[in-house]
Amino acid sequence: MSTSRVVLITGATTGIGLGLAKRFHRRGDQLLVTGRSEERLDRVRAQLPGVLTFAGDLAIPADRERLAHHVTSEFPDLDVLINNAGIQRRVEIARDRAAWHERQHEIDLLLAAPIHLVSLLTPLLLAHGRDSQIVNVTSGGAFNPQPFAPTYSAAKAALHSYTMNLRYALEGTTVTVTELIPPAVATDLAGPGTAHGADVDEFCDAAFTGIDEGREEVGFGPTSSPEFLRRLTEENSRFAQGAKRFPVARYVNEATMS
Fold this sequence. Notes:
With 258 residues, the protein is of the alpha/beta class. The protein has helices at residues 15-27, 38-47, 61-74, 100-128, 150-169, 200-212, 226-242, and strands at residues 6-9, 30-35, 52-55, 80-83, 132-137, 175-180, 217-218. A seven-stranded parallel beta sheet has the order 3-2-1-4-5-6-7, with helices on both faces. The longest helix is centred in the middle third of the chain and has 29 residues, at 100-128.
């Protein structure tokens, strides 16, 4: 990968997204970040001079399409897509009385948004033919379901599965697929007063290094332990054995197409 890249990070006004944005910005990359709050995006612009921003709710398909159109027209040299935007509703299954649209919003932001954006922007990454990267942010909860956040855990587990299939679909192209697997990190993901876990800066330092190295999986602490890594290795081995049972279409770089 080049030392200067065009990077899109969704959900980058706080927490992990903002931490990664700071590191790409420090390195001198061209950066586009998204968020729902114009006020928070203003603060990001003040912290990171020159960063470009996009306001929208990526749980909404039209906003995802609007973002993809903006990227295609203004940032056709996109190198890195980081699907980070998310929320976490800490509501046990037995106590969840929320209206369905509130539950659907969580699913749409955590799962539908990254899948849709990958579909919209992968052709752009393939078209320029340079080494590029898609980073999907999952969670330790994708592997060990969390009863206090069951929908979040389920959506992240589904995104983990999709990411494995996406990597297979892009195998042999110039696009690397990385799964960033945070453990509990002390952000405001679930709202004020809920922060616990690893230090954000320590996690983002390790995450940035792993992303920059193009590693397939990047964890930290519990999600980089020997036991966890063995689990990933075994799962990847089983996937590789079963992936070719049925022929499937896979991506190719446009430059290699006849």
